[in-house]
């Protein structure tokens, strides 16, 4: 059959939507604690993947694969054992990123040749990013809460859209 495309069944959309909606809701409710859970799960996956790389590297004599696997294992162990530290490091990186973006936007608004009305939005947006980045840098726990609420809300919305799609497909 040329020109046709297989579409997921409505049940697949329903299950995916319900799971995503529940995960999003849990992220919103538990906030930074859910980040710890995500980091632990990711850490375990890194340990497993790293072990597979090490064994594969040993089996095929690939030193780069062994080194890659060891690095993955070390990072995975760090994520599992020092979850709070890893979470703080991620929030510091996010805050610094916001500060850099803010500074870049603000400086972009100061470019020569722009009229005053063309400068206002980049400078205002840049200043807002700078302030948010600085506040985030000095308040890592609240930053983690807000990040997880936003990601949870997006995940919840995606799940609800999949549930809606499931019911639309079922009525076709």
Question: What would your notes on this structure say?
Answer:
- The chain has 172 residues and is mainly α.
- It has one domain (11-167).
- The protein has helices at 10-30, 32-60, 63-81, 83-109, 116-137, 140-170.
- The mean pLDDT is 90.
Characteristic terms for this protein:
172 residues; mainly alpha
Helical proportion, percent range? over 70%
Low-confidence stretches: none
The counted number of beta strands is 0
- Note the overall shape: extended
What count of helical segments does DSSP give? 6
What is the N-to-C order of secondary-structure elements (H for helix, E for strand)?
Answer: HHHHHH
Q: Tell me about the largest β-sheet.
A: none
Q: Structural class of the helix and strand makeup? A: mainly alpha
Please report which band the strand proportion falls in: under 5%, 5-15%, 15-25%, 25-35%, 35-45% or over 45%: under 5%
């Amino acid at each position: 059959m040329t020109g046709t495309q297989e579409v997921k069944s409505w049940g697949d959309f329903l299950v995916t939507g319900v799971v995503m909606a529940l995960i999003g809701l849990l992220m919103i409710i538990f906030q930074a604690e859910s980040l710890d859970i995500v980091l632990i799960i990711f850490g375990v996956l890194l340990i497993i993947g790293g072990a597979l790389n090490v064994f594969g590297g040993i089996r095929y004599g690939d030193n780069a694969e062994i080194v890659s696997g060891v690095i993955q294992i070390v990072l995975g162990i760090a994520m599992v054992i020092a979850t709070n530290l890893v979470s703080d490091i991620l929030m510091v990186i996010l805050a610094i990123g916001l500060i850099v973006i803010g500074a870049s936007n603000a400086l972009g608004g100061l470019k020569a040749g722009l009229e005053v009305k063309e400068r206002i939005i980049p400078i205002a947006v840049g200043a807002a990013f700078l302030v948010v980045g600085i506040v985030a840098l000095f308040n890592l726990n609240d930053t983690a809460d807000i990040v997880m609420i936003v990601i949870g809300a997006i995940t919840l919305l995606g799940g609800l859209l999949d549930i809606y799609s499931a019911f639309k497909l079922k009525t076709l």
